């Protein structure tokens, strides 16, 4: 669900682009083997209740630990994986691993948290995502409430009927749906009345600029109003500063995600983060 390149626009060829194309070609060639070799990892970023600071869930974010190039970020390989169709086996690995890890944390005594997994529009077009998700939940013995699927608005513009059927299927399972990067797509808002999504995630580009740019404040307020009117949860992404926190608290936004509370973390670090924040919550409850 990385940003799409504009199609059919005339571009001037530059040597730098040549390098980028070489790079992409190299990545495409190595992706397949990387999946089989187990070179991918998931990091987890906490989702926070803004009022209390408690961790209420996490988003799984994939990384490629390449044996020669080191750690590669998803913006560099997800678009390539989407174009080559390899997003299907990769996305399936991500779903299984996120569910497996969630089960492991529950077994280790962490409170039951909902894990959010990004699913690409290409996966919806190429496979029965409902079946894939159901198998992952079963394999990890997780209830559907343990999972949120994040999709982008671009998905609505693809194959309307088929995608709607799959999204309904996911909701039928009892899995939550979130619209990621909300406000950055070009789709009409009318899908909100048809699609039973649970959550809108305000794109971090609005949050990043909002302390300088009044328009981004207006857009952010409009999104919060849409969420309120439709009875949806809303998560502010890219919260980096105390000013961001203050703004969203004052605007009545309940949930946030961002470097202010925690970067995407290795599983062991996330475990510690939740264990520590749970014990502080407990302390607060005792003191109060
Ligand atoms: P996303 O789903 O919108 O994820 C949020 C991105 O914002 C993550 O980047 C996260 O590290 C970053 N972020 C979180 N808090 C902050 C902050 O306070 N400031 C800033 N500047 N950034 C913040 P990441 O991990 O590099 O992922 C980029 C994108 O790659 C994701 O955007 C998502 O679209 C895609 N992606 C990641 N993992 C997967 C996956 O497993 N499957 C698919 N299909 N796409 C994935
Ligand atoms: Mg994104
Ligand atoms: Mg996401
Ligand atoms: Mg996002």
From TrEMBL:
Segments forming a coiled coil: none
EAL domain boundaries: 24-278
Top-rank taxon: Bacteria
Name this polypeptide is given: Diguanylate cyclase (GGDEF) domain-containing protein
Span within the parent record: 541 to 828 of 828
